[in-house]
From TrEMBL:
Its cofactor is Mn(2+). The keyword Zinc does not apply. It is a single-pass type II membrane protein. Residues 87-114 form a coiled coil. This is Hexosyltransferase. Belongs to the glycosyltransferase 31 family.
Amino acid sequence: MTWKSRGDLLPKSVMSKKWVIFLCIGSFCAGMVFTNSRMWTMPEPKGLGRTTAMEAEKLNVVSEGCNTRILQEKEVKRESKGIYREVSKTQNAIQTLDKTISNLEMELAAAKAAQESIRSGAPVPANIKMSESSGRRRYLMVVGINTAFSSRKRRDSVRETWMPQGEKRKKLEEEKGIIIRFVIGHSATSGGILDRAIEAEDKKHGDFLRLDHVEGYLELSAKTRTYFATAVNLWDADFYIKVDDDVHVNIATLGQTLVRHRSKPRVYIGCMKSGPVLSQKGVRYHEPEYWKFGEAGNKYFRHATGQLYAISKDLATYISNNKHVLHKYANEDVSLGAWFIGLDVDHIDDRRLCCGTPPDCEWKAQAGNVCVASFDWSCSGICRSAERIKEVHKRCGEGEKALWSGSF
């Protein structure tokens, strides 16, 4: 072959290579166009299109450096919130159940105590038995007048002044829901002359509540405990009152005072005091267990003075339910205060329950502030009450109209 011929073939070879390269590049670009979506779009794994809150938290933990401690803390917090909600619901249910059980226990205890009184043969007035057999009605208050065998003159003076008698007393019970009784137990020699005298007096007036209790000055705490336990089982009332037989009482004013506290479940009303604990033997109001109240010279806790005080039904029921374990101190007002000191009780200090005798109660009545009870502090009651209570009643009494026109 000649150089000429070679020269003719060289350009054709070169041009063929260029077209081959061009076609290759074109084919590559065309392939890129058709495969673009597959190359640049990441396939979406099945089930990972949406993330839950739990998965988001876990992914967040991974972004924070795969710190498992943070994840554990979040898990604990989430579980704690759920447990707290469940505990709150459980506590509310338990509190509701406790209240229901408490109410049922008090009703059951009252029924048992009534049966025990019947079985023990404790004397019960005929009118009380009739009331029990015909069904218990609700009363406003039961007033128990603490008295002794030697206090016949005091009782007669009370009957002649602030305590209605006969048909009026029955009307007071039926229309006003107020029951008043002299409260006394038995002598050491049951059936003796003292007991027979009380039985004859009760037959005449029908205004006694006889307790299964042996009378004695040193047994006043036991008598108070027995009185409330007995009264709450005989009568269903809002309040139970204890008053001494040498104190003047305005019944209508007492009722109006008590109804203001009717909505309170555990209320203790009286003239609150905190006197000294007397450790000296032979003195009045000596406390043999003075050492329980701390160092010498200490004072008692707050409690109502013993001349007159009132407690609500729940507290009377509490005494009835726990009468066998309630400790008795030498002074009955201290004992009552001790029984309530550890309970959730509303102490009401009302000074109208401890007014003085005239002119004190007379001035207060003229000023429109009628007293509930009047007595002399120097005598822990009205001095020579059998003779003087009529004068107190005349000058400080609320008047019979106040009682019958009063609404409780």
